[in-house]
Amino acid sequence: MITVVGTGTGAPVDADALAGAELVVGGRRHLDAVRLPERAERVVLGPLAPALDTVGKYVAEERPVVVLASGDPGFFGIVRALAERFGAERLDVRPGVSSVAAAFARAGLPWDDAVVVSAHGRDPRTAVHLCRAHPKVAVLTGPGAGPAELGAALARHAPGRLLVVASALGDPERERVERVTPAEAAARDWGPAVSVVLCLDPSRALGPVRTVAGGDAGRPAGWALEEAAFTHRDSMITKFEVRALALARLGPRPGDLVWDVGAGSGSVAVECARLGAAVTAVEKTPDGVERIRANAAAHGVDVRVVHGTAPDALSALDGPDGADAPDAVFVGGGGRELPTVVAACARRARRTVVVALAALDRVPAAREALTDAGFTCDGVLLQASRLAPLPGDVTRLAATNPVFLLWGVRPPGRTEGVTQ
């Protein structure tokens, strides 16, 4: 049997959990904080594979093993690796308070509506985009993905966020909980003691009561909303039939970054944000910029709006380390610069570019821009007829203008074309 004990956030380890153990595995600070059985072998966790191999030898001989871990070891912890290697039936898990729960407790906030993301040993882009898109996020930090790096990214795109940095949780002498702006977080060396960072939109930190926990519980019940759901000018809006297929090809999801270039009313941008993605909208007209902001506010989502004309405005979106490269891009409009805009977007997109255009003459050039960037390209002409009432309680079909929708998909493993 492997007994897995959560510790490190204030609660002492029950001595009975260690009694009889012949092997005790844990981080150095966990091992130093307990009194080990006299004859127990001690393994300090570093690389996981050698420690699991040692555990395997004891398990094969049916000798008792104790694993010490931080907080709740079943929450982004070692329980997963142990269950995969040895089977869940061999585990006796005794969870402590997770660092996320402790951090929210110190902040005095509920966290049933929070998004939790681990940046430990993972690409920090996902954590950054979640912090941009959601009002309440807990980030489990790691080397190269701590408060300074998170703050630097958010200072560019979401400077109004509040970061709550919780360090050495549960240590009565070293525990610290500090509230800082992203810029303040970026300017400091936080050291290795940070447990978790909470990223909050102060105006929405207390969300509505939930019956289902988690940030994704707030996902919309519907999408491809009616045009009437958005403020727009003279019907200059991506129609919902086109938007439905565009969203399907963009595939926006939590942790993604989506650009809406030539955003107009921002209907695509808002829908991508409603589906959990971080979104940047580029629009050339001042009234369009205000319209996008109004539509985002009306739907309760965050959309970063950049006033500028593509492709020149795209250079302002590029981050210093490639972290700002979009996963997906939607290109609307159809002016003469369209092929150049599509090519610029394709150089940056990690996964896909979707282009909506009404002019037949511009389709070949847009398609060529996608294929030249290494994308596989497909497309469709969408022409819908909607039910419309007539006098006498009868109905006719009213045709909408046809629209070409092209999409390019970067082949798996092919990222050499992405601008870094």
Describe this protein with a few key phrases:
3 domains; five-stranded parallel β-sheet; alpha/beta; Methyltransferase, Cobalt-precorrin-4 Transmethylase, Domain 2; seven-stranded mixed β-sheet; 420 residues
Cα Rg? 26 Å
* Proportion of residues in helical segments: 25-40%
Strand content: 15-25%
Based on DSSP secondary structure assignment, what is the total number of beta strands? 19
- In CATH, the homologous superfamily of the largest domain goes by the name Vaccinia Virus protein VP39
Mean model confidence by pLDDT: 90
Q: If strands are numbered along the chain, what order do they take across the biggest sheet? A: 13-12-11-14-15-19-16
**Any guess at the CATH architecture of the largest domain?**
3-Layer(aba) Sandwich
How would you classify the helix and strand content by structural class? alpha/beta
Biggest beta-sheet profile: 7 strands, mixed
| Oligomeric state, counting identical vs distinct chains | single chain
Give start-end ranges of low-pLDDT stretches: none
Predict the CATH topology of the largest domain: Rossmann fold
